[in-house]
Amino acid sequence: MRQSYLKNAALLTGSDVVLRLAGMGLRIYLANALGGEGMGLYQLVLAVYSLFVTLATAGVSAASTRLMAEELAGRPARARGMLARLCAAALGLGCAAMAGQWLLAPVAARWWLGDARAAAALRAAAFGMPFMAVSAVLRGFFVARQRVGPNVASQMVEQAFRIGVMAAALELTEGRDAGVRCAVVLGATAASEAVSALLMAAFCRREAPRAFGHDRAEAPLHAGQRLWEILWPVGGGRCVASALHTAENMLVPACLTVYLGQRAAAVSQYGVLKGMALPLVNFPFGLLGSLGVLLMPEIARACLRRDSRRLEILLGRMVKLTMYVSALAGAAFWVWGRPLAAALYGSSEAGAYLEILAPAMPLLYLESMVDGAMKGLGEQKAAFRYSVWDSILRIAGVAVLLPRLGMRGFLLVMILSSLFTCAANTRQMLASAGLRPDWAGWLAGPAFAAGAAALAGWGLRRALAVPLAGSRWMQLAAVAAGGAGMCAVCLAAGWPLGLGAELREACLPRRAAKETGGKPESSGHQL
């Protein structure tokens, strides 16, 4: 079991890093191909698209994982019947979302987004909804089978297909209107979802004899009721949050237009922030994403067993590693943000946004990790409540500050929002777990290590001034060398302050038994 766990952990971590690298490369290519206004229009389309994606898929994967795990532990014939019913339900949700987005595309483009050019892109993206929903069910099935290989393979193929088709489509539409080019980009996304679903179906067909035997499908007990009991709270909450998020994304360009006086300039600034700067800010989170996925069931298990010692260790490790990674990422973007944005996008504006957001990165990263831990502790309702309040406050902040301060107001709203949700969720997590904060280990150590890395980074930036003034590839090489040097300094400074011990425990699961008084978990799932 331990070997399977470590294999899954390695696959998740490796695939996440590769997919993030590929996604970042695609974002950079799109930013250069579409320009600031094109990226702004693309981000506006994604705001509406994400709402319908939520309607099609929210809670589907979680329901599939849970219900298939329950049925696979019993009669295989009923498990086969449950999978068929889950796929049918997902197909119905996906088709409903597709029809809704197709029919509402002209209205959403003109009245919600304020740009009629978005209608074609919304309609092109709608065709991927049914495939996306069915894929979510099949991925949940493989998670219930404790097999992540098919999910990883399908995501890799999907991303490779998407990149290839997008690149070809953008080459063929060179010089066309931004609306046309956004439409072909979203059409490529829909086609890649279809490829992923077909590949997952092939994997499922091969897995079926091992999972279900050769028995014919039987009707599972109360399938509809059990599915609804999961979809309603999970999907309903996500739909509300997604609707509020979509409303905010539609409001930002409108308020920026009031400040700037020009719609095109407002959409361009919005595209630079959302399409260029924020993907870079979120990229280092890939180092923590797999940790969060693996920690959540461990936290849930410790919570159910009321193992307060184990819970304290897991949560403390999560916070400490998150703070070290986020503090280093913030220091790196503070030092190298402008050179990196100039090398990747040729945009000084994106670099300025990176510098401003750099000090807030510990809040951004910790907020996401604590949200996952809250679900493991059974505090989903509290996390959802804070998320809704945060969205309401963000919308109010956008409406008040952006017409007066422009993009500076939006950056201020983002930072204050992260401070609110991070503080609220962390406070609730500590209270629920009965955990006392370790301020020295959580804040002082990461701050010292990141400060040392920042000083080293400024020295390296001066030493690398010549390549930073050269070609784009020389600039990227200089930034990579400087970032590697900062990582080494941060690791050396933080190792004796507790970072080394946490990394050893995270990588050597056998030692975790010593932390809990020599009582290892029966599943062997230690971090």
UniProtKB/TrEMBL annotation:
<keyword id="KW-1133">Transmembrane helix</keyword>
<feature type="transmembrane region" description="Helical">
    <location>
        <begin position="9"/>
        <end position="29"/>
    </location>
</feature>
<feature type="transmembrane region" description="Helical">
    <location>
        <begin position="41"/>
        <end position="63"/>
    </location>
</feature>
<feature type="transmembrane region" description="Helical">
    <location>
        <begin position="276"/>
        <end position="297"/>
    </location>
</feature>
<feature type="transmembrane region" description="Helical">
    <location>
        <begin position="473"/>
        <end position="495"/>
    </location>
</feature>
<dbReference type="InterPro" id="IPR002797">
    <property type="entry name" value="Polysacc_synth"/>
</dbReference>
<protein>
    <submittedName>
        <fullName>Oligosaccharide flippase family protein</fullName>
    </submittedName>
</protein>
<keyword id="KW-0812">Transmembrane</keyword>
<feature type="transmembrane region" description="Helical">
    <location>
        <begin position="182"/>
        <end position="203"/>
    </location>
</feature>
<dbReference type="Pfam" id="PF01943">
    <property type="entry name" value="Polysacc_synt"/>
</dbReference>
<feature type="transmembrane region" description="Helical">
    <location>
        <begin position="318"/>
        <end position="337"/>
    </location>
</feature>
<feature type="transmembrane region" description="Helical">
    <location>
        <begin position="409"/>
        <end position="427"/>
    </location>
</feature>
<keyword id="KW-0472">Membrane</keyword>
<dbReference type="GO" id="GO:0005886">
    <property type="term" value="C:plasma membrane"/>
</dbReference>
<feature type="transmembrane region" description="Helical">
    <location>
        <begin position="124"/>
        <end position="142"/>
    </location>
</feature>
<feature type="transmembrane region" description="Helical">
    <location>
        <begin position="83"/>
        <end position="104"/>
    </location>
</feature>
<feature type="transmembrane region" description="Helical">
    <location>
        <begin position="439"/>
        <end position="461"/>
    </location>
</feature>
<keyword id="KW-1003">Cell membrane</keyword>
<dbReference type="InterPro" id="IPR050833">
    <property type="entry name" value="Poly_Biosynth_Transport"/>
</dbReference>
